[in-house]
Amino acid sequence: MSLWFDLIKENPAGGRRGRIHLPHQTVESPVFMPVGTQGTVKAVAQDVLESLEAEIILGNTYHLYLRPGHEAIRRMGGLHRFMSWPRAMLTDSGGFQVFSLSELRKVTDEGVQFRSHLDGSSHFFTPEHSIDVQIALGADICMAFDECTEYPAERARAEESLRLTMAWARRSLDHFRAHRDEVVWREAFDGRTQSLFGIVQGGMYRDLRRECAERLVEMGFDGYAIGGLSVGEPRELTQEMIAEVLPLLPRDKPRYVMGVGYPDEIERYARMGVDMMDCVLPTRAARHGLLFTSEGRVNIKNRRYAEDQSPPDPACDCMVCRRYSRAYLRHLMQAGETLSGTLNSIHNLAYYLGIMQRVRGEMEEQGPGNGD
Amino acid sequence: MSLWFDLIKENPAGGRRGRIHLPHQTVESPVFMPVGTQGTVKAVAQDVLESLEAEIILGNTYHLYLRPGHEAIRRMGGLHRFMSWPRAMLTDSGGFQVFSLSELRKVTDEGVQFRSHLDGSSHFFTPEHSIDVQIALGADICMAFDECTEYPAERARAEESLRLTMAWARRSLDHFRAHRDEVVWREAFDGRTQSLFGIVQGGMYRDLRRECAERLVEMGFDGYAIGGLSVGEPRELTQEMIAEVLPLLPRDKPRYVMGVGYPDEIERYARMGVDMMDCVLPTRAARHGLLFTSEGRVNIKNRRYAEDQSPPDPACDCMVCRRYSRAYLRHLMQAGETLSGTLNSIHNLAYYLGIMQRVRGEMEEQGPGNGD
User: Fold this and answer.
1) How far is the alpha carbon of A119 from chain B, nearest alpha carbon, in Å?
2) What is the value of pTM for the model shown?
3) Does the structure's ipTM exceed the value 0.90?
4) What are the residue ranges of helices labelled H in chain B?
5) What is the pLDDT of residues A236-268, one digit of tens each?
């Protein structure tokens, strides 16, 4: 088996304290996964991610396929080795980026024709091709190729989109099963290999979400994601969709909500029973000077911090808060210094990872007992 | 005394293995000083500089005066505290940047009127003001306000420029002596305070250089710099000017050549008897993808490195060379990732600091005996 999930404790509200055993790392869950789009979590070096105790990070298939190319990465031993990241990794399917970044998309049942946002070159992605690319990259967890339904979407549009996602999920899984043993690091890990997660879509229609979840579970993926959220809908709707889907997913498989969210959101969803989350928010906001702190959001560009010698977050003991002041971080931002994005990102990631650490600790303390 | 210099060993060729005792740090010399223009060595965090064993870094008075402002920095406890750098620091006088970066300069005997390159605001720098700003910043070593003679310069122009530099050196020293005890950290360091170095100018005229050196030595600075080099002249001329000046400088004071140079240059000048050097080259070149290695210069953008899995410098054991490949560094550069500048800068600084470390070691081994 390439992935197994230990349910250490289950709380009355549904929260799960678990452990996801992956070839490169055993990941304590619920877990927040920093996003490393182009083979780097922007502005943060790998040794710093390790010291922040990040156990799993994301790579973006669309970006890495275009540059440096998945075949080059395979030849160099896979993404772990290419970027020197020894812990766990997950790649998305490329689907979301094809829809959000590329140009001149043409979607058919077969797949998606698109032009690269980098150089306008023409490409064709199918479920099979997405899986081939992900096997070349060699992350511990791959994702099925799906269509992310936009928001808002009419029911007919959501149904059609779901039909595509379901067909592509089937093809993704079949192709993955036929080729998963080809991952470059398999022998070094005693024959263990990659895992594949299915993605629940269905727009904001509860019945479509249910239908999707049930059919994916029948197919038997290694884990299940809920996609198509945080696409502009109100938060209540996000939460409603998650609450609708979670009970339908197998208790012994990891559950992943993609692309969320703000600190209060990741905490809430973790307590509802979501095991994995990822989001560009902590790093992207950091580069724009927005810090998440125990005292709320701090826009470090604000003039009021010009001579503020207190740490970014007085309650935080990350390497940035232990060493630098708000005034210094503001200065770096004002001066356009690269170190600004680095230090802000390190703090925000520490804050996000710290939330999950705290939630895991609280889950261990409370609840009716062992989930096993 | 605020600075004292231990001459541990002197070599036949003139090279000096020494120790510069400064309030914040005892610096092993000859030493290379990374440049931290705006209160940060670009793209490299302070803890990384520490792990690279950088013992002294530069700050640029012109930049810090304009942003965030020297008074703000003084109120926050000085530059060491502001940027959280506990080791030694040196500030330049602002003179060079006023001449190279600002607009609409007007030079009189009194000082220099100029407009900020940031917002066009008008400013007036005198020797006294430069010293006031440097005392507010609070580096361990301050520099006299000078005029950097351009290259090429006619003899009459070089003489006039030298006249200004000499008058400004006198005024810098008088003002410094009257106010040096005002540095904000003085009490915390048992009454020790900042030091002031004079700067030898004189263009490429040997007799002017000699005259300048002799008169500065009469004034009695804490150390002596040779400025106005690496301004476009051929290397032979740089070396000739250094060779001309060094024998005139007191044996028991540190000697600093400003703004040089390439790896072979800093090694050569160190062996000639230069104790301190600084240059933006290792960090600036790094951001443009140029790595200095034991195998020569590596332009990491080059296509030939696309799948090169060897380390940037096979003979280097810095944190970058131990962990990452040329292919990965090339990818980061191609993808426009911030981490590119960071990792390239770390390696180049490690390379420069490593040269000085090696030279110091060799100086200890060889030579006729103890310099004391």
Assistant:
1) 13
2) 0.97
3) yes
4) 46-51, 61-66, 70-75, 79-83, 95-100, 127-137, 155-179, 206-219, 235-245, 263-272, 281-287, 319-323, 326-334, 338-365
5) 999 999 999 999 999 999 999 999 999 999 999
